[in-house]
């Protein structure tokens, strides 16, 4: 029986949300206004008497922030929770941190929990940095002895020793968050719960934060964290959970979870009649819109264009990774005087002989443009392809974090005569 | 996926069998690299050097409506937080002031002077004995201002610390108790002034003064009880915010602060003692002023009973509502 540190069963949490009826605008007759106000008053009084929450508004709706959330986290897991805004991530963390109570279900936690839902909780602007370290540390659960012990470390990490005895209201925002994060980073507990506070401050400090998070992860602690920085999640976490509208839709390894999450975000654009000029796009080999190829294989994209207008037009192919970042952009470049022929039907074939992209999934955006004037027609997410790992011509594609792009290359190493330095 | 090598830029190839390296045609790589690659773990699993971290058998169950069995034990574990919150409120008060902590002395002194002039000299209310009026008044102001400050602060404590309560867990009971502790510190300072006053009037208190801490504790509990009750309700129904200043303003005239409770007609004395502060203030006067004021015992017990009731009510209401504070802010 592996040591399960957090076990959740059917956790559910609902909130009452008030709505103003749409008819408020249209009905302004006094009779209707009185009737509506009387109804609201009666409802609020009934709620008051029954001890329920009093909600402002004409209608009250029960909104389930979390619904039947169940999972098991074993010791040492670093779990990243992802989901769209409003999916219930913060609510789940609040329940695990005992800030709020679930309406149904139960959770069992084994070990001390340190939760960091916000940096700088309890910081008082009038107190100095030194005083705030003790204040914030005590609020987060450290004993005074512990804080004294780690005091120098905290100050060194935050790089604020010069301003330690100045009131925090005088700190720059960067110093403020550095100090706040530094205190939290020295928390000592078996379970760590964090809500979107992975890295703050300038780039150097952010790297420090991530390195510290890495240390925390290596030390065998269990971490549950919510973040939108998918790249950081990929590097730090071992498991990933996707919350969709309050339910757990996936709980798997972090790669699988990220892949599913991103796939849900981006979809192949359905081919509809709205495209006037670009009538067909497909892979050069299989004539499919979704295909895969091995690293180093030729990438061929074909498109059929019909009845192009009588202007200088060009065709662009943009390749982007699932995170939405554009990896490459290619264009037929009518600046050189080569334009797509107008009228009739034209077949365009785009070829890359050696596909240098790191293994993974990619989307292709196509566009028909009138260069420097306008985009005539745009077909986003027209194709999707997956690059599979392979070895080609001495090039190995290792994938992230080794890189995104591995063009064909060669090495030349020639030992020189002894006595001369090697090149 | 966390990589086993911390810096791939070094060129050490993880996750790849070393033989592949020697197959690349144009490269003759030193075999040291291969040995280094061998030293690094080849499997995909995350390295977890266990430092003896085990859940300490300390199991926490989160369930709707579950009252923690270890609530009071947890309160003890978080005992340092009482001090920290109280200290925070006190130190913030006089930041960036010129006179600083001297304000803590000036306020009670001035109140006493004003009361002596207004009630003693102008209104000529009797002091009920050979005790100097100033002393009698001060002996009444002392517990009353403790109660008033403690009640006001405690009633607003939960809403005032909303930013803490909605982000961090700690037993919420700490918040109103810390607020009352802050008022207690003021009380101690005023008490020092009272001692100085007694020295000035060359007044020696009797043995009864030893019972003073008991009455101070009752005042503490009275303000805590009512404060907890109101602060819990205030989160849900903000109307209570307006009730407190009203009680405090009215209370100072209703309670025997500016006069001795011996002027209340006998048939009303018991009902009058329903106000918990009547028992406390009477007790204070009795302790400090050497038994001049005979204690009206039935009233005293009634006041204590009311205090106990409010304490029970306050704790019950607070514990019932504390889990939903974060949702109601």
Write the layout of secondary structure elements.
The complex is a heterodimer of chains A (423) and B (329).
Chain A: E1 4-19, H1 23-26, H2 30-49, E2 59-74, E3 78-82, H3 89-96, E4 104-110, E5 113-116, H4 129-140, H5 144-158, H6 173-185, E6 191-195, H7 203-218, E7 222-226, H8 230-236, E8 239-244, E9 247-253, H9 254-265, E10 278-283, E11 290-294, E12 299-306, E13 314-320, E14 326-331, E15 345-352, E16 360-370, E17 374-388, E18 391-392, E19 395-396
Parallel strand pairs in A: 3-7, 3-8, 5-6, 6-7, 11-17
Antiparallel strand pairs in A: 1-2, 1-4, 8-9, 10-12, 12-15, 13-14, 13-16, 16-17, 18-19
Helix pairs in contact in A: 4-5, 4-6, 5-6, 6-7
Chain B: H1 19-23, H2 31-39, E1 59-62, H3 71-77, H4 79-93, H5 103-122, H6 133-160, H7 162-165, H8 174-200, H9 212-236, H10 240-254, H11 266-272, H12 276-288, H13 297-321, H14 325-328
Q: What is the average per-residue confidence, as pLDDT of chain A, rounded to a whole number?
A: 84
Distance between the termini of chain A: 57 Å
* Rg estimate of chain A, integer Å: 29 Å
Point out poorly predicted stretches of chain B: 1-56
| Proportion of helical residues of chain B | 55-70%
CATH topology name of the largest domain in chain A, in short, is: Rossmann fold
Q: Which value, in Å, is the CA radius of gyration of chain B?
A: 32 Å
Query: How many distinct folded domains of chain B?
Result: 2
**What is the CATH class name of the largest domain in chain A?**
Alpha Beta
Q: Count helical runs of chain A.
A: 9
User: What is the strand content of chain A?
Assistant: 25-35%
CATH architecture of the largest domain in chain A: 3-Layer(aba) Sandwich
The tally of strands of chain B reads 1
């Amino acid at each position: 029986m592996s040591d399960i540190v957090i076990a959740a069963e059917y956790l559910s949490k609902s909130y009452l949300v008030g709505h103003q009826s749409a008819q408020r605008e249209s009905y302004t007759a006094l009779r209707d206004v009185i009737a509506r106000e009387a109804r609201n008053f009666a409802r609020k009084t009934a709620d008051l008497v029954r001890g329920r929450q009093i909600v402002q508004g004409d209608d009250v709706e029960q909104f389930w922030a979390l619904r039947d959330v169940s999972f098991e986290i074993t010791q040492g897991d670093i779990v990243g929770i992802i989901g769209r805004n409003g999916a219930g991530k913060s609510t789940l963390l609040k329940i695990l941190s005992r800030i709020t109570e679930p309406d149904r279900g139960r959770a069992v936690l084994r070990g001390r929990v340190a939760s960091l839902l916000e940096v700088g909780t309890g910081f008082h602007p009038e107190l100095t940095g030194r005083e705030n370290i003790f204040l914030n540390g005590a609020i987060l659960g450290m004993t005074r002895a512990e804080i004294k012990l780690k005091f120098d470390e905290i100050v060194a990490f935050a790089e604020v020793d010069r301003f330690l005895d100045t009131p925090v209201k005088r700190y720059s925002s960067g110093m403020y968050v550095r100090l706040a994060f530094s205190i939290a980073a020295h928390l000592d507990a078996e379970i760590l719960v964090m809500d979107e506070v992975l890295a703050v401050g300038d780039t150097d400090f952010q790297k420090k934060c991530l390195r510290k998070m890495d240390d925390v992860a290596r030390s065998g602690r269990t971490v549950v964290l919510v973040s939108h920085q998918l790249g950081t999640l990929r590097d730090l976490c071992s498991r990933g959970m996707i919350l969709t509208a309050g339910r757990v839709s996936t709980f798997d390894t972090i790669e699988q979870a990220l892949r599913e999450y991103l796939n849900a975000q981006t979809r192949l654009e359905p081919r509809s009649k709205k495209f006037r000029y670009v009538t067909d796009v497909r892979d050069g080999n299989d004539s499919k819109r979704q295909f895969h190829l091995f690293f180093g294989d030729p990438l061929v994209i074909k498109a059929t264009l019909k009845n192009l207008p009588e202007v200088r037009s060009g065709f662009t192919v943009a390749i982007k990774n699932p995170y939405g970042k554009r990896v490459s952009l290619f264009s037929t470049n009518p600046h050189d005087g080569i334009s797509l022929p107008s009228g009739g039907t034209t077949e365009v074939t785009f070829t890359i002989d050696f596909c240098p992209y790191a293994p993974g999934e990619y989307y292709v955006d196509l566009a028909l443009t009138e260069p420097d004037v306008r985009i005539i027609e745009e077909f986003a997410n027209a194709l999707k392809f997956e690059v599979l790992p392979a070895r080609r011509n001495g090039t190995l594609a290792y994938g992230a974090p080794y890189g995104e792009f591995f063009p064909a290359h060669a090495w030349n190493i020639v030992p020189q005569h002894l006595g001369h330095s090697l090149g | 996926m966390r990589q086993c090598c911390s810096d791939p830029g070094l060129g050490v190839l993880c996750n790849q069998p070393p033989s592949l390296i020697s197959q690349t045609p144009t490269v003759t790589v030193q075999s040291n690299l291969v040995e280094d690659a061998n030293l690094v773990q080849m499997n995909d699993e995350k390295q977890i050097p266990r430092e003896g971290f085990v859940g300490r058998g300390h199991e926490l169950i989160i369930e709707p409506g579950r009252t923690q069995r270890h609530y009071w034990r947890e309160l003890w574990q978080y005992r340092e937080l009482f001090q920290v919150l109280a200290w925070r409120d006190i130190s913030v008060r006089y930041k960036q002031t010129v006179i600083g902590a001297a304000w803590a002395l000036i306020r009670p002194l001035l109140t006493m002077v004003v009361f002596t002039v207004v009630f003693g000299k102008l209104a000529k209310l009797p002091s009920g004995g050979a005790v100097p009026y100033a002393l009698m008044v001060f002996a009444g102001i002392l517990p009353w201002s403790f109660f008033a400050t403690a009640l006001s602060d405690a009633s607003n404590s939960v809403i005032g610390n909303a930013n803490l309560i909605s982000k961090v867990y700690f037993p919420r009971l700490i918040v109103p108790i810390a607020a009352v502790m802050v008022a207690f510190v003021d009380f101690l300072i005023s008490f020092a002034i009272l001692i100085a006053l007694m020295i000035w009037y060359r007044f020696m208190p009797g043995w009864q003064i030893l019972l003073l801490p008991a009455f101070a504790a009752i005042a503490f509990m009275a303000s805590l009880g009512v404060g907890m009750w109101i602060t819990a309700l205030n989160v849900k129904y903000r109307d209570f915010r307006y009730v407190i200043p009203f009680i405090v303003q009215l209370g100072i005239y209703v309670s025997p602060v500016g006069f001795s409770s011996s002027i209340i007609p006998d048939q009303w004395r018991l009902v009058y003692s329903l106000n918990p502060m009547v028992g406390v203030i009477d007790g204070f006067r009795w302790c400090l002023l050497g038994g001049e004021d005979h204690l009206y015992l039935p009233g005293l017990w009634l006041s204590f009973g009311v205090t106990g009731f409010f304490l029970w009510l306050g704790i019950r209401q607070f514990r019932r509502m504390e889990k939903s504070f974060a949702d109601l802010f």
